[in-house]
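Contributing new records

If you add data, match the layout below exactly. Sequence lines come first and carry their own label; structure lines follow with theirs. Keep one chain per record. Anything else will be rejected by the validation script.
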Amino acid sequence: MKANVGTADKVVRVLIGFALLSLLVLLEGPWKWLGLAGIVPLATAALGYCPLYSLLGMSTCPQE
């Protein structure tokens, strides 16, 4: 797995991930479980790898 998520992209993913996870606390009923989707952007930010970017041939990492 070659890293394909750059620094700015990681920051955005962390912010979106925490925002989605906050739905677990803020919402009631079945909609609150939508917040579990926040795990995906947090995981891709932590790993520095996004499988969707690989499929699309994209990368936000700076060129070496």
